[in-house]
TrEMBL record:
Lineage: Bacteria, Pseudomonadati, Bacteroidota, Sphingobacteriia, Sphingobacteriales
Protein's name according to its UniProt entry: histidine kinase
Catalytic activity line of the entry: ATP + protein L-histidine = ADP + protein N-phospho-L-histidine
Main location, first listed in the record: membrane
Gene3D superfamilies: 1.10.287.130, Histidine kinase-like ATPase, C-terminal domain, PAS domain
Membrane topology: Multi-pass membrane protein
Keyword Membrane: yes
Source species: Mucilaginibacter ximonensis
Keywords: ATP-binding, Kinase, Membrane, Nucleotide-binding, Phosphoprotein, Transferase, Transmembrane, Transmembrane helix, Two-component regulatory system
EC numbers on record: 2.7.13.3
UniProt domain Histidine kinase: residue ranges: 278-494
Domain PAC: from-to ranges: 88-140, 222-274
């Protein structure tokens, strides 16, 4: 019914008032009765405790039931209904019995006497809180989606990175302005075409198509680096990530990609590496002669029984060895990165190597105790010198980062077809945040810096690279203040393999 409803239809209502009230009461969440001018609420009854009931007439009903924001709207609608003697109907906020804000759809009918004067209003209200909340959430999320869309547009337009999307037929479905500019193409020329059709060389297009296949099959992103000549800028290096985009069923429906030009970063890195490598080389020659002078002088001091000079030269020799180790570390990094480190695979027994490491350690390190657990015969096909280097590095770190007199524990077990070596110390330990980063090149933990423990953060990087090139893993576990354990694994040889190789 509307405001223009003829009053005579409403007039008939009091005739069947009782039945009408019963029906409304049964089907509504709330029923209420108001005085002719709505100044007094005679009665309010609410099912399920949605609103608190009122048995006695009250004057302050508007503050009790109507949310402040909607009070004026309610008052306006009431005024309008009184003037027209028409139905009051409004959706508005209410104060629920539990103190929360609810929503009702409220309808009130004027009951008229014979002269057509209003005797009272009879109202019913439905609790529409849930529907309102859903509507609000929908509206909010629509707003967010719109905002997200605008944000995505700005990002993909403004970024110098290349942003694109492929469908499962390897065709571009989205290309951002940076990529269009790089290709010198318009959207219409580029979208809907494959890599090959967009001018990629066959090897390059083929490589990316196989990567797309991999992303679809594994449902995981992949990251790669590719270098190729640019028409104007010359040879460039690009770092790219292909990420799966899933549909509602969780299947990959397209592949989103981003590519960044990292040529300048690469060039700077190369320059830095070349510099470090050159400095290390240059330092090595004078260092070698200083070492031999110190050795000769030490011998002469020993012969002439000059114990003070001999002691000093002994210490100088130790410092020089430390310097040599550092310089060798840098040279190894530069060799590794320029691909000059060869892994010379040969079968050997890890238990024998471990015994040698034990003897060398006892002969050279006196500040700590060592506990090497017995290692079972474990054949690996690996580069013995490189694995020795990993061992030595982990042991010297355990010594370096734990107090004098504490014990370093070394063990080797075979777990799941892999040999697992562990080096445990009782030292300062490592924070959880640092653990995954220890194996990055030049990464050092702040505490090490603060405690003035010298180093360049390349030992673990070298270990990790060497272990990875053997098909193994390396990681650390630690509890700060309670020491650390470093692990590395190597694939063990199967019995048949050993015979073939030997
Ligand atoms: P360096 O020891 O020359 O700094 P590494 O690459 O060998 O470089 O180690 C990287 C960092 O890892 C070190 O700076 C140190 O903070 C931390 N670290 C390595 N081994 C241990 C250990 N056994 N206990 C605590 N911290 C360690």
């Amino acid at each position: 019914m509307t405001e223009s409803e003829p009053a005579d239809r409403i007039k008939r209502l009091p005739d069947s008032e009782e039945r009408f009230r019963a029906l409304v009461t049964a089907t509504s969440d709330v029923v209420y009765r108001m005085s002719p001018d709505w100044s007094i609420m005679h009665h309010l009854e609410s099912s399920d405790g949605f609103l608190s009931d009122t048995g006695e007439p009250i004057a302050d009903w508007i503050d009790k039931y109507i949310h402040q924001t909607d009070q004026q709207t309610v008052k306006d609608a009431i005024r309008q209904a009184i003037i027209n003697k028409s139905i009051f109907q409004l959706e508005h906020r209410v104060l629920a019995a539990d103190g929360s804000i609810g929503w009702t759809y409220s309808v009130a009918v004027p009951l008229l006497d014979e002269k057509g004067e209003i005797i009272e209003w009879f109202g019913s209200a439905r609790d529409v809180t849930d529907r309102k909340k859903t509507e609000e959430a929908l509206l909010h999320s629509r707003g967010e989606t719109e905002q997200q869309k605008r944000l995505n547009e700005i990002i993909t337009t403004a970024t110098p990175d290349l942003v694109y999307m492929f469908d499962l037929d390897y065709k571009f479905t989205f290309v951002n302005p940076a990529l269009l500019t790089m290709w010198g193409k318009t959207w219409d020329e580029a979208v809907g075409k494959t890599l090959l059709e967009n001018g990629y060389e066959p090897w390059h297009a083929e490589m990316h198509e196989r990567e797309i296949d991999e992303v679809v099959a594994t449902k995981k992103p992949i990251r790669g680096e590719v270098s190729f000549p640019h028409a104007v800028l010359g040879r460039r290096v690009y770092d790219y990530i292909f990420t799966p985009v899933f549909n509602a069923q969780g299947e990959v429906e397209s592949i989103a990609g981003t590519t960044r030009d990292i040529s300048d970063i690469k060039e700077n890195e190369q320059r830095k590496n070349d510099f470090i490598s050159m400095v290390s080389h240059e330092l090595k020659t004078p260092l070698t002669s200083v070492i031999s002078y110190v050795q000769i002088s030490k011998k002469r001091a020993d012969q002439s029984k000059d114990t003070i000079a001999a002691g000093m030269l002994e210490r100088a020799g130790k410092q020089l060895s430390k310097m040599t180790r550092m310089i060798n570390g840098f040279l190894n990094v530069s060799r590794l990165e320029s691909g000059r480190i060869q892994i010379d695979h040969k079968p050997f027994d890890l238990a024998v190597l471990m015994k040698e490491v034990y003897e060398d350690t006892l002969a050279t390190i006196f500040s700590h105790a060592f506990e090497f657990e017995p290692c079972p015969e474990t054949w690996v096909n690996a580069d013995r010198d490189k694995i020795n280097q990993v061992f030595t590095n982990l042991i010297s770190n355990a010594v370096k980062y734990s107090p004098t007199g504490s014990t370093v524990h070394v063990a080797c077990e075979v777990i799941g077809g892999k040999a697992r070596v562990s080096v445990r110390d009782e030292g300062m330990g490592i924070n959880k945040e640092d653990l995954p980063r220890l194996f990055e090149r030049y990464y050092r933990v702040k505490e090490a810096e603060i405690n003035h423990i010298s180093g360049f953060g390349i030992g673990l990087y070298l270990c990790a690279e060497l272990v990875k090139r053997h098909g193994g893993d390396i990681w650390a576990e630690s509890e700060p203040g309670h020491g650390s354990t470093f692990y590395f694994t190597l694939p063990v040889m199967q019995a048949g393999e050993q015979h073939e190789m030997l």
